[in-house]
From TrEMBL:
Domain remark text: A pair of annexin repeats may form one binding site for calcium and phospholipid.
Pfam families: Annexin
Signal peptide: none
Gene3D superfamilies the UniProt entry points to: Annexin
Native organism taxonomy: Eukaryota, Metazoa, Ecdysozoa, Arthropoda, Hexapoda
InterPro entries: Annexin (IPR001464), Annexin_repeat (IPR018502), Annexin_repeat_CS (IPR018252), Annexin_sf (IPR037104)
Family stated for the protein in its record: Belongs to the annexin family.
Organism: Bicyclus anynana
Lineage: superkingdom: Eukaryota
SMART domains for this protein: ANX
Protein name in UniProt: Annexin
Keywords for this protein: Annexin, Calcium, Calcium/phospholipid-binding, Repeat
Calcium keyword on record: yes
Molecular function in Gene Ontology: calcium ion binding; calcium-dependent phospholipid binding; phosphatidylserine binding
Amino acid sequence: MSPHREPTVVGVQNFNAAEDAAALRAAMKGFGTDEEAIIAILTTRSNAQRQAISQAFTHEYGRDIIEDLKSELGGHFEDVIIALMTPPAEYLCRELHHCMEGMGTDEQVLVEILCTRTKPEIADIVDSYERLYNRPLAEHMCSETSGDFRRLLTLIVTSVRQGARDEEAGVDHARAAEAAQQLYDAGEAKWGTDEEIFNKILAHESFAQLRLIFEAYKELSGRTIEQAIKAEIGGELKDALSAIVECVESAPAWFATRLRAAMQGLGTDDRTLIRIVVSRSEIDLEAIKREYERLYDKTLESEVRGETSGDYKRALVALLGPA
């Protein structure tokens, strides 16, 4: 997780919430809806600016902008716009809740949201989840997952309370070498794998510290931690640990592969496409676009255009920003 951000959405200078609220009200009032105006305003404002617009809208018109947007828009276009209007942590909480509700749990969504975020981001999600659903995220997750996979996710969401994976704390070379030795002893060096040790280290340490640990591991064992995980560990736990490792090396590359998977094969996984484009737009979407083109020799924009249509397409392309 590189500390420098590469967003495609940075908000506008000379922002005026009341003016934007008035323009959005005009776009929705009367006969027909001006979708172009809605896209032009909401895809260029930052989430903080959108929250200010929402407050101004209620203040000026006594109305809830999200309810108004829902009544005017439909389909995946509506999904994009409502995602943009939701505070980031709350949006990811709704996605987590959705992937665990009903029949079966979508483990890939749990991995995508929980294994790729820094500790401060996870702490935000944990707080928001309890506020929104009146139950702890860890408890809901425990009832929907099992085994070592459950233990890893639980460690990730509970360790934020103990200040683990603190991105600001700096790195410790001596501790990195120790952790690398523990991983080696728990995996390659013994018959059978001690998943507990992998879970503990990968859930607790910051991305910066993990980067050092993985370098030390390679020096020690002669192969990468990724190779070890793929050889030693199976199932959902392998996917989850691999996601952490890949995000330590390059989160944008990991998200690029996830976007590719969402658009390949029969039908598009629109929910994942929307979630990644919206939730990374103020973090590293510019870098994701670059990685996508490097990995697949096609621009992300051309792929999105090929998989979507209408206002839905226009909104996503606007969020992707200029090529």
